[in-house]
Amino acid sequence: VDWLLLGTHVSVDEIARPMLLVAALLYGLALAAICWNRERASSALTGFLLISFGGNVGTYLAADVVTFYLSFAMMSFCAFVLVIHYRTAEARRAARVYLVMSVASETAVLAALILIGATGARMVAQVPEAVAASPHRDVIIALLLLGFAVKAGTVPLHIWLPLAHPAAPPAASAVLSGAMVKAGMIGMIRFLPLGAVALPQWGTGLVVLALVGAFLAVPIGALQADPKVVLAYSTISQMGFVVAVIGVGLAHPALAPAATLAVVVYAVAHGLVKGALFLGVSVIKHHRSRLVAALMIVAALALAGAPLTAGALGKYAAKGAVGDVTFIGAPLDVVLSLVATGSTLLMLRLARLLWRSEPEPKPGERGELWAWVALALSAATVPWLVALWWVPQAARPSANPLEWGDSLWPIALGVLAGAALWWMSRQDVLPDWVAHPDGSAIPPGDLVVPEEAQLARVGAALRAGLDRVHELSRAAGAEASSAASRFGRFVVVGTVAREDRLTRERSSGVALLVVLSIVLILVALIQEGLS
């Protein structure tokens, strides 16, 4: 499309086609649920959802580097408006954290793309080989992983997810978890040198980090009291599964094609199922019925990977793609199976929370219900059709019940673990914060809580220092007091004591410009030094 921007190139391939379908279903049915229910401020919500949709599908379809980055940035910053939509204190805090993480992500990705551009690669298809041959290869990979891991919710860059999901409207949560986090996954697939060169250190490191997140998210999520926070930690765990498979492709070039296709199949299943679960949290509160309960159970089983579900399809394809790779001495496919055990525990926690929640009937507003039913049915059927028609190379599980053991044992283990925890809670064996979790033991956002506390202490210390400067200034006399006061206020108040200015929406653009300018200068210096 030569007339658009600097010359835009888009293409539909075996990766983009399934993801485009998922995005269309998720955004379309989310918009239907909003419009049919005439949700508060729906015009703003639908408007920014549509812009986010444009950016989201742009990341899937982009065939040149500039188009990908512009689409990625447009999606990221529109999502800020979705998170802050309700304007509550919770939403404002979540939006601030999300904005900081998004700026860091955009900055890292932009720096990596500048270095990639220096190689002469302009088209996305040229990037893996260009990165593999670049003298700055390791710097580029580090920046790409930093930028895309934020969006994919990879530990320890996941902190925005558990805050954003409960704060955002249900429809926005559905697309955030179902489609937007997949942009980080697509970025890794498109730009990392998968299949171009063997990078065992990078690949192994990525697998370790991803699996740490996949397993740590389970106990933290199980201690939460908000169903949407539980689902957010489930997303962190599931994306850890996905990123681990990408890490295998990075370490073993021969496995990269199969790993890429398996990740796409898994992403299709996870995107639709997780969208149905997030939207279902609202639906089951407003429209409790046997139909709603049955479809929520099917979606939960699919997320855990039960036989004949879309989740089983995705997990089977992923485990088949890793081949004979081992992890700390154990077959990696067995380790990946244990992620399903964690998913089972989180789904049991979700079921308990939903069962005990107070219903808020809305019998006259059934638009959300029917949009959700369509999404839940799509989650159960579309992944199978995608795998059959568009990704026939990916491994598919058998319909023979005798071969369901690989799918059933992780779920059975999760059920047994859940039953054991329930029994111990009844016997008063467990601490009260474990037996009756209310979300206070490890608050949503986990790592961000001590970080915020540390920043608050730093701010308090600097304010105390400012007060001390004032006291010393007054003791030195009126003239010295005036000069010192002006200097102290300029240095301290202007940079730290009024840090709340930087969290306001109107200042974020200036902050981004400053950060990007610094990064551009650093990248130029790095290039000059390395050349």
Key features?
531 residues, mainly alpha, 2 domains, two-stranded antiparallel ribbon, 1% strand, globular
Describe the structure.
The chain is mainly alpha-helical and 531 residues long. The protein has two domains: 420 residues, no CATH class; 83 residues, no CATH class. It has 20 helices and two strands. It has a two-stranded antiparallel ribbon. The longest helix is centred in the middle third of the chain and has 31 residues. The radius of gyration is 24 Å and the shape is globular. The two termini are 35 Å apart.
Spell out the blueprint of helices and strands.
Layout lengths: L15 H22 L4 H20 L3 H19 L5 H29 L9 H7 L3 H16 L8 H7 L2 H22 L8 H23 L4 H25 L4 H31 L3 H15 L5 H12 L4 E2 L2 E2 H25 L10 H23 L15 H22 L5 H4 L12 H29 L1 H20 L7 H26 L1
Antiparallel strand pairs: 1-2
Helix pairs in contact: 1-2, 1-8, 1-11, 1-15, 2-3, 2-8, 3-4, 3-8, 4-6, 4-7, 4-20, 6-8, 7-10, 8-10, 8-11, 9-10, 9-14, 10-11, 10-14, 11-12, 11-13, 11-15, 12-14, 12-15, 13-14, 14-16, 18-19
